[in-house]
Design goal:
Number of helices of chain A: 11
Order of helices and strands of chain A: EHEHEHHEHEHHEHEHHHEEE
CATH topology of the largest domain in chain A: Rossmann fold
Oligomer: homodimer
Pfam family, one (chains A, B): Pantoate_ligase
InterPro entries (chains A, B): Cyt_trans-like (IPR004821), Pantoate_ligase (IPR003721), Pantoate_ligase_C (IPR042176), Rossmann-like_a/b/a_fold (IPR014729)
Subunit structure (chains A, B): Homodimer.
Number of domains of chain A: 2
Subcellular location (chains A, B): Cytoplasm
CATH architecture of the largest domain in chain A: 3-Layer(aba) Sandwich
Distance between the termini of chain A: 42 Å
EC number (chains A, B): 6.3.2.1
Strand order of the largest sheet of chain A: 1-4-3-2-6-7
Radius of gyration of chain A: 19 Å
Largest interface: A-B, 30 and 30 residues
CATH superfamily of the largest domain in chain A: HUPs
Chain lengths: 279, 279
């Protein structure tokens, strides 16, 4: 039976009883609209923790676009049913006023790794992520936290922040879960039309092709230009970015001389798609 | 026997053994150069915690003035001897590279309460305080933390930050400890000349006189103008501020209609003195 908790004071008491018994708490921070990608994080948490909290909070502070915030899918009953099947202990679903009460005035910001890519196209986004994740770590006092590699840059920002602020939590990155055709699972995929949905897997396919070419010695710029051309011809656009970057620092790379990642953000119809893969 | 620890990894292990036994950890964050003001915090921590950590770290991030940083008094051997007498369990004295290793990129900032007074005269100071205190709470995993009311605005900034980030620590504010003549104890007092030292207690005396006058109905502006005039005549200056403010939010107050505080920052010779009292 998954217990739904909405107040951080009640959560704190729950966690305190677990901690007194020496239990390791795992947390999976989400914005709800759960899919198999999230559930893979939940299963990892279940395996690596004694008690599992899934948080669902559509965090206004990390949306730079009010339309995206308004349209973000929400279905708590469905989410709860999914979490029940995985034996999650607590669904923590606080309201906005619980997370950001009157007088709230604190911001956590990470420079460097948060600045390019998503940071450049979504001003304030990673401040919102870093702040709410710090808060969720405080509220849940989790010893382990599970994040998807789908949001690769977010994972690196969270790792940096946790190291920098000495937060006593271990960050576990989990591989992107894909549909059979390769499309990375995302809560925003439900907003794709049938035609767009049919076209969407090409993003992953072209990223793979580019990564293979780069590994085979093709200059990254040429491989990525070819991918962009193919995707644009198939109806993707406008482009925010399609780049090879250092996997950890997200700094630009011309050659994959250190662990590298291809990262893309591009429109498809009304949806902004993101994806990334290792080179 | 007070154990000196310099690495956060070693501290984490130490704290983990305490936590497994259900012990409550208290922390007193300091910049060293300990005096009776600090020791009153240590004694409060000793009473209210099972284990006590005193941290000594002269935090470069909170100094906006490199000269003040260079001249800040340091005497770890003397500090350690004092802490031994009070039965402190751990002196945590990390180096700068332990607290801010290469690649460090995260900042905690508090708006509102941190902006006027010290915030206006020491740009970046409270970002440095909020960031290092968040780090020290992560490193020590303390359940209680003890701060002096001498740095009144700092205490309010830390309270705001802890509430906002849901850090699981209780903040305990402890009264300012004064010399017999009323001078608030401060590590910077050693930098006063004999003449300045003789003059210094007038700051507290004039604050008291102004508070009494305000409580008796004198308009705050008049009471503070009289105090400033008397202090300037005695050699205090230049003035950063001498104001009545809301005790919690530090917003300006004309009348003490809510808990109010008089706060002063003023030069005396080469030293910048701060003090504050309740109205």
């Amino acid at each position: 039976m998954t217990q739904v908790i909405r107040s951080s004071a009640e959560l704190r008491e729950k966690v305190a009883t677990w901690k007194r018994s020496g239990m390791l708490v795992g947390v999976v921070p989400t914005m709800g609209a759960l899919h198999d990608g999230h559930m893979s994080l939940v299963r990892a948490a279940r395996k690596q923790s004694d008690r599992v909290i899934v948080t669902i909070f559509v965090n206004p502070m990390q949306f730079n676009n009010s339309d995206d915030l308004a349209k973000y899918p929400r279905d708590e009953a469905h989410d709860l049913a999914l979490l029940e099947t995985e034996g999650v202990d607590v669904l923590f679903a606080p309201g906005v006023e619980e997370v950001y009460p009157a007088g709230f005035a604190t911001k956590v910001s990470v420079s460097g790794v948060s600045e390019p890519l998503e940071g450049a196209f979504r001003p304030g986004h990673f401040d919102g992520v870093a702040t709410v994740v710090t808060k969720l770590f405080g509220m849940t006092q989790a010893g382990r936290a599970f994040f998807g590699e789908k949001d690769w840059q977010q994972l690196q920002v969270v790792r940096r922040m946790v190291a920098d602020l000495n937060i006593p939590v271990r960050i576990i990155g989990c591989p992107t879960i894909r549909e059979e055709d390769g499309l990375a699972m995302s809560s925003r995929n439900v907003r794709l039309s049938a035609d767009e949905r049919a076209c969407a897997p090409l993003l992953h396919a072209e990223l793979q092709k580019a990564a293979e070419a780069i590994r085979a010695g093709t200059p990254a710029a040429a491989a990525l230009a070819a991918a962009q051309e193919a995707l644009s011809a198939a109806g993707f656009g406008p482009w925010d970015y399609l780049e090879m970057r250092s996997a950890e620092t997200l700094q630009p790379l011309d050659t994959p001389c250190e662990p590298a990642r291809l990262l893309a953000a591009v429109g498809l119809g009304a949806v902004r798609m993101i994806d990334n893969i290792a080179v």
